[in-house]
TrEMBL record:
Annotated transmembrane regions: 15-32, 52-69, 90-116, 155-175, 181-200, 248-267, 287-311, 323-342, 348-369, 376-403, 409-431
GO cellular component: plasma membrane
GO function term, MF aspect, one: transmembrane transporter activity
Boundaries of every Major facilitator superfamily (MFS) profile domain copy: 19-435
Protein name: ACS family probable galactarate transporter
Principal location: membrane
Organism: Sodalis ligni
DNA-binding is among the record's keywords: no
Length: 444
């Protein structure tokens, strides 16, 4: 075996692409675990006697924990490294997903409380995942490949909805809502084993050749990010103040909040909107919900590719990043037009167009790769993700109250569509020139 490994590493390998593939798959499962309750929501509500406000509160439990844990999660990543923290994160979010499948045997009040707490713990465990993705891509990919790699792992959320929405919808229809959580938990445990066996830091990987490591390092990859010395030091907390004092970074952070409002509408209320507002069956919703998700996936990949193409053709970094964002957010706002038609085909087409636009303009993670100070990539990604996921609390709750108070989703769609326009304005009016932020050094 040692001889085979030695022979393998004599030529340039492409381990970074296998690492990206594993990140992509795990991120898809990460988002599937978030959407399980949404897919099962109608059946759970009937069995446990929940109204839309109760369901909105349970949805928001994930967002509360996810938000609170962002900065601690980023600190853990910068201190202990991406690989180790990700392993624990993946194991525990899979456990909390699986346990939700067993609350049906409890009394109604106990089941509701248990769902709330398990959604809270799910958010707690998943918090380091996206900042870890950004750190791993920064370590494994040279600068000229990093934007495309970031767009690929970010597009996993749309791929997840496209693949898992019909699968989970079928599980709810054919078996019961409880099986959705159990099966997704088991899938997570299998991926935990794969992660610990095959994913390493660049210089610790038994599979990567010296030639590949040199190529990554010479191209700007931060291959030494998680060496023991820097891990012990961890980030300086004064850096948080510097990040929050930068107009450019604040524009990026708030832009992600408005963008994530669209994400959380699709993750939580979209299937319920199709059932309650458009009268579709759960089985049909599982299939229909995958159409906008496929379009979002295609938009997510093509947005990154267009941005890189603009760079290669000599456009400035600022234009190459902002142009797809502006175009994408304009398309995303088109979902408001669903309020003016009852034609199911047209509604699905408009939602597909909106989700394509959302994906096309979702360049926040590549922008973070362009702008985050090298000393605190994990922490900067965590703050970015924290701002973005304020929407995971606000969106489910606000839409729940809007639907209950107005007896329709019309105001909810206006709210989400206007959020897309606000994200566009953050990049146009606040961010300014996109460039890497240089931090003032903090004395030891």
């Amino acid at each position: 075996m040692a001889v085979e490994t030695s022979l393998l590493t004599k030529k340039r390998t492409h381990v970074r692409f296998y690492v990206l593939l594993i990140i992509f798959i795990i991120t898809a499962v990460n988002y599937a675990d978030r959407v399980t309750l949404s897919i099962a929501g109608t059946q759970v509500s009937k069995e446990l006697g929940l109204d839309v406000v109760d369901l909105g509160q349970i949805f928001s439990a994930f967002g509360i924990a996810y938000l609170v844990m962002q900065i601690p999660g980023g600190w853990l990543l910068d201190k202990f490294g991406s690989i180790k923290v990700y392993s624990f994160s993946l194991f525990f979010w899979s456990l909390f997903t699986l346990l939700q499948g067993f609350v049906g045997g409890l009394s109604i009040s106990a089941a509701v409380l248990s769902l709330f707490m398990l959604q809270f713990m799910l958010g707690f465990a998943e918090a380091p995942a996206f900042p870890a993705n950004a750190r791993i891509v920064a370590a494994w990919f040279p600068a000229k490949e990093r934007a495309t790699a970031s767009s690929i792992f970010n597009a996993a959320q749309y791929f997840s909805l496209a693949i898992f929405s019909p699968f989970l919808g079928w599980l709810v229809y054919a078996w019961s809502w409880k099986h959705v959580f159990v099966i997704m938990g088991i899938i997570g445990f299998v991926l935990t084993i794969i992660w610990t066996k095959f994913v390493h830091n660049p210089f610790e990987s038994p599979y990567a050749s010296r030639e590949e490591l040199d190529y990554i390092e010479q191209g700007g990859g931060v291959v030494n990010m998680d060496q023991k010395k820097s891990a012990r030091q961890g980030p300086k907390w004064n850096y948080v103040k510097q990040l929050l004092s930068s107009r450019m970074m604040l524009g990026i952070f708030f832009g992600q909040y408005f963008l994530n409002t669209i994400t959380w509408f699709f993750l939580t209320w979209f299937p319920i909107y199709l059932v309650q507002e458009k009268g579709m069956t759960i089985m049909k919703v599982g299939i229909i919900a995958s159409i906008p998700a496929i379009c979002g996936f295609l938009g997510g990949i093509s947005g990154g590719m267009v941005s890189d193409l603009l760079l290669k053709r000599g456009c400035s970094l600022t234009f190459a990043r902002k142009a797809p964002i502006v175009f994408g957010m304009l398309l995303a706002s088109s979902m408001i037009l669903c309020n003016y038609t009852n034609n199911t085909v047209l509604v699905v087409a408009l939602m597909a167009l909106a989700f394509f636009g959302k994906g096309f303009g979702a360049l926040g993670w590549p922008v973070i790769a362009d702008t985050a100070p090298k000393e605190v990539i994990g922490l900067c990604g965590a703050i970015f993700n924290m701002f973005g996921n304020v929407a995971s609390i606000v969106t489910p709750l606000l839409i729940g109250y809007l639907v209950k108070g107005l007896h329709s989703f019309n105001a909810a769609l206006i709210f989400v569509g206007c959020s897309a326009l606000m994200s566009m304005l953050c990049y146009l009016l606040v961010v300014g020139k996109i460039q890497r932020l240089e931090l003032k050094k903090v004395p030891e």
